[in-house]
Hints:
- By secondary structure, the chain is of the alpha+beta class.
- It contains four helices and six strands, in the order H-H-E-E-H-E-E-E-E-H.
- It has a single domain, classed as Nuclear Transport Factor 2, Chain: A.
Amino acid sequence: MKRTIAVPVMCVAMMLMGAYVRADDLQSRCTRIGQKWVDFWNNHDVTKAFDVFTKDIVYEDIPFGVVYDGADAFQAFAKGAFDAFPIWTFTLVKSSCWPTPSGQQGFIEWRWSAVDDPGFFGTGNQINDVQGVSIIEIPRNRISRNSDYLDIATAMRQLGCDKFPSCH
Length: 168
């Protein structure tokens, strides 16, 4: 009788441990994807875009109300961003993902610092530690949809735009 109870108890314990490992693997994968996202933006190399994103990427820049749909549009956006801010740093704060029927979805929380040269207004001023988050969809191993939200008001304040209406 004791053996009969022990076997199901061990099976349940192994299933629970396996579920934990699978959940941990999901988060590890998500952290790796978040780090690849940060590395792409920090390296300023548009040729590496499709190591992180799918070629049918839909990339939304929410504060500016712009959507870049597909490989060509995204690469042009990334090149423009790299040219506008040759000095910037993204730092991964946290990423989290959860399973969906088509893969995963989640978020990447990040911080951004840059020099506004040429930047938004060419002031040469430092933009420090602006918070942002990217909502992402990952059907396989690359991001297919990315919606960026960032605290643009803080960046504008740091550039002095709260004192100079011509910044707006």
